[in-house]
Amino acid sequence: MLRRPEYRRALVFCGIIGIPVSLIAFWFLVLLHELETLIWVDWPHDLGWSDPPWWWPLPLALVSGAVVALVVLRFPGRGGHIPAAGLQAGGASKAAVPGVALAALASLPLGAVLGPEAPLIALGGGLALAFRDLVRAPATEASTTLLGAAGAASAISAIFGSPLVAAVLLMEVAGVGGPQLFAVMLPALLASGRRHRVHRLRPLDRTGCRKPEHRAARSTPPRRRRRGVVDADGARHRRGRPRDAGGRTDAARLVAAHPLRNTVLCALGAAGCAALYAGITGRSPSEVSLSGQATLSQLAADPHAWSVGSLVAVLVFKGVAYTLCLGSLRGGSTFPALFLGGAVGVLLSPLPGLGVVPGMAAGVAAASAATLRLPVSCVVLVVLVVGNSETVPMIVLAAVVAFVTTELLPQGPGIPPFSAKPGRAPRPASSRP
Q: Comparing C-alpha atoms, which of 61, 429, 71 is closest to residue 260?
């Protein structure tokens, strides 16, 4: 293949379009970050509050749900795929770019418990195809697939901060290697993790860390330089993955029955969880709202600042809000899962031989693998996030066990296609590229 002139030209073109796609993705993340800071930090401070008041998420959710519902009903691509279906690659469409960008801007800064990774995949692939058409390059099926994947990888690397994570993630999302990939990689990961554990046996101190070579884990996740197939009904699922193993498509099925009303209700329900959390604990409602990336950084830096009651409360309320947002708003499922797993790890850290650092590493790995169903990508991502070689065996074992357990759970119902209005037949899938 490398000897074919057309493939070499495609490689050069992918390298060229990676520059503008990366820049656009970077500034899109910057815009999301600035809006989030403005809404959740600057405005409350300007009004005299150190933290947003308990009711702050409610009006934001009303606006978010209404805008996302209108995008889903009126824009090509329905604002991107439903987060409950998991990360998806392929099917890039330049026509879907405006709707994806608008739905992400209406969801993420306004309190959706989602991350930006799924919109970035859709935006990167669509922008790559738009640049191809701009220079009037040949539009073949092979070039569409290649450029869509290259654009998505270029965009997603802007948030994870590593081209390695982006490449592995997209290979696994796209199903490269098919079922044989999992058949080979799972025992390989498990065996290598156990071998690493055996060859590095040394006494443990009371925190669960090794003596004397323990290095502190990096306290922050990859910097957000600011949370797929973009199909017509947002209901298609990843090849070879169960549609749902934990009931997280229930909200999506509810929204599909009446998109406008139920999207707003789900958004308000998620905001209500944040308001209840703030009222019960006296902490900021932003710890339940938003993706959880900044909160995970704070938790890793000072886990003792959280009482057991606060950790339990944030797990309950953020978990419910996360489920509602997965089926209604637009974004990715990765960063909330990382935070929830990290919070569970901190809660379990007093167990003998565990400790805060290994507990958070195992929790983050297990939660991300169970949510994304991408064990290899999750291992690579969490290892880079934690930055502590001593926790690698625990990360591998936690990711493999969580993935296998989730895959063995009963398969839930799929997401039905949307209805344009209640009582009418579902809108047929668009044939637009």
A: 71
Q: How far apart are alpha carbons 288 and 322 in whole angstroms?
A: 9
Q: How far is CA 188 from CA 159, 194, 220, 395, 397, in A?
A: 28, 10, 29, 14, 11
Model confidence at 169, pLDDT cuts 50, 70, 90, reads: confident
Q: Which amino acid is at 329?
A: L
pTM assigned to the model? 0.80
With H, G, I as helix, E, B as strand and everything else as coil, classify residue 398: helix
Q: Name residue 332's beta-bridge partners.
A: 115
Residue 64 burial (CB count, 10 A) = 30
d(CA 239, CA 253): 20
Mean pLDDT calculated for residue range 82-92: 76
Residue 2 CA to residue 401 CA, distance in Å, equals: 38
Neighbour-count burial of 155, counting CB atoms closer than 10 A to its CB (0-12 exposed, 13-18 middle, 19+ buried): buried
95: how many CB neighbours lie within 10 A of its CB?
16
Q: How confident is the model at residue 13 (pLDDT cuts 50, 70, 90)?
A: confident
Average pLDDT, the chain: 79
| CA–CA separation, 86 and 425 (whole Å) | 26
**Ranges 35-39, 238-242, 271-275: which has the least confidence:** 238-242
**How many residues does this entry show for the chain?**
433
Asked if 165 contacts 380 with a C-beta cutoff of 8 angstroms, the reply is yes
Position of tokens 């199903």? 175
Q: Is the CB of residue 403 less than 8 Å from the CB of residue 375?
A: yes
Angle between helices 259-281 and 308-326 (to 10 degrees): 170
Q: Compute the distance between CA of residue 146 and CA of residue 170 in angstroms, rounded to an integer.
A: 12
Q: Token pair for residue 122?
A: 């859709």
End-to-end Cα, the chain, rounded Å = 27
DSSP state of 78: G
The b-or-e profile of 308-319 (16+ CB within 10 A means b, else e) is: eebbebbbebbb
> Alpha-carbon distance 19 to 3, whole Å?
25
Backbone dihedral angles phi then psi of residue 115, each to the nearest 5 degrees = -110, 175
Dihedral sign for Cα atoms in the order 373, 376, 378, 381 = negative
Residue type, 165: V
Number of CB atoms found within 10 A of residue 105's CB: 20
Vertex 253 angle, CA 249 and 259, to 5°: 125
User: Which residues, including other chains, have CB under 8 Å from residue 243's CB and lie 6 or more apart?
Assistant: 85, 237, 249, 411, 412, 413, 414, 415
